[in-house]
Design brief:
- The protein is mostly helical and about 350 residues long.
- The longest helix has 22 residues, at about 210-235.
- A three-stranded mixed beta sheet has the order 1-3-2, covered by helices on one side.
- Helix 2 crosses helix 4 (about 65-75), helix 8 (about 175-190) packs across helix 9 (about 195-205) and helix 12 (about 260-275) packs across helix 13 (about 280-290).
- It contains 15 helices and three strands.
- A hairpin with a 5-residue loop joins strand 2 and strand 3.
- It is globular.
């Protein structure tokens, strides 16, 4: 992805955060979105090149996570995203009014429309009024759902938690049964964070998963890859953490690799490092992706080509010089009387 220009519409050179941002916007924002915004502010005064991929690597996120955060802050009028003629993100402008806008959603500036192709379901999260939340909680089906979720996560739901569940149901179009299964499957894997559950909910919505059966099939495929990678790495006694899951998401969804290809990369990682390193495996898979590897057979072809190129480079050069008489000039020469040696051998054998 091309580098992106960061600039601000005033001449400040300090990295400062408005109190209004902290007081009004930060409490309701996703913590990861806040972290991304703060790091963007820091990058304003940095001479280094900036891109979505570099920011994702720095914060151990996927590029999709970064784009969601940018879209969120643009809707809050903290920044403005700028696009080139091809619809590619080319600039991020931090607005003077950051943090001072009212919480009510306003129409985005006409001069900076978001191209239709870049909008996902996760970028249209609305604000809910107290009346909206009260009506949601008073619905019998929703009341039962909230009670069940509280039992699963082991603590009462906060206002922000209820807003998240409303978002899953009303905007992502997940049924109450599907949300219950979502929570159950996440908790079974050791993830009680609603922030983690929301990432799964967004993924299901963008994958057009609408029923529990469809979710079970998708979860089964994911679990096969999840536990297959843990087995290939020899990991046991713990669940994978978020940054490790981000690598798996990248390998399966971005690169489109199957479990057998990923397992081979894990095997080579262990052989080279003697430990399970997701970063090292990622470097292998990055290389394979660039070389258009899709199946294990492609890896074999790539290995064969590498061995051939290596053998050509490392082929020894014969620097031994010979004279016209065929003697090797690199070593002291000796002169032997072969007739005399033959007589000595015969005499010794007759004794």
């Amino acid at each position: 992805m091309k580098d992106i220009t960061l600039h601000i519409n005033n001449n400040t050179t300090a990295t400062c955060i408005p109190n209004s941002f902290i007081d009004e916007l930060m409490p309701d924002a996703n913590g990861e979105y806040v972290k991304i915004y703060l790091y963007l502010l820091r990058c304003i005064n940095s001479a280094e090149d900036f891109s979505i991929s570099k920011l994702a690597d720095k914060l151990d996120h996927t590029e999709k996570d970064i784009k969601r955060a940018l879209a969120y802050w643009e809707k809050k009028h903290v920044l403005r995203l700028e696009y080139d003629s091809n619809g590619q993100l080319a600039g991020i402008c931090f607005l003077d009014s950051a943090g001072s806008m009212p919480k009510k959603e306003l129409t985005p500036p006409a001069q900076a429309p978001v191209p239709e192709k870049t909008v996902s379901v996760s970028e249209s999260r609305p604000s809910y009024s107290k009346t909206d939340m009260l009506n949601f909680q008073q619905n019998e089906n929703h009341e039962n759902l909230l009670f069940i979720i509280e039992r699963y996560i082991g603590h009462p739901l906060s206002t922000h938690d209820i807003e998240s569940i409303m978002y899953w149901h009303q905007e992502l179009k997940l049924s109450t049964d599907l949300i219950e299964y979502l929570v159950e499957s996440c908790v079974d894997k050791g993830h009680k964070s609603l922030r983690y559950m929301e990432k799964v909910a967004i993924n299901w919505s963008e994958s057009s998963i609408r029923t529990v059966e469809e979710a079970k099939r998708a979860t089964g495929m994911h679990s096969q890859i999840y536990y297959g990678i843990m087995k290939a790495f020899g990991i046991s006694g713990r669940n994978l953490v978020d940054y490790e899951l981000a690598f798996i998401d990248k390998w399966t969804n971005t690169f489109g690799f199957s479990l057998d290809v990923i397992s081979e990369a894990c095997k080579r990682t262990i052989q080279s490092t003697n430990q399970p390193s997701f970063q090292y495996a990622d470097s292998i898979l990055e290389s394979w992706h660039k070389n258009h590897v899709h199946r294990p057979e492609d890896i074999a072809v790539l290995d064969s080509a590498y061995k051939k190129s290596k053998s050509v480079v490392s082929k020894p050069v014969n620097n031994v010089r010979t004279s016209a008489g065929g003697r090797f000039n690199n070593f002291p020469q000796r002169s032997y009387n072969y007739d005399q040696l033959e007589k000595q051998l015969l005499n010794s054998s007759n004794q």
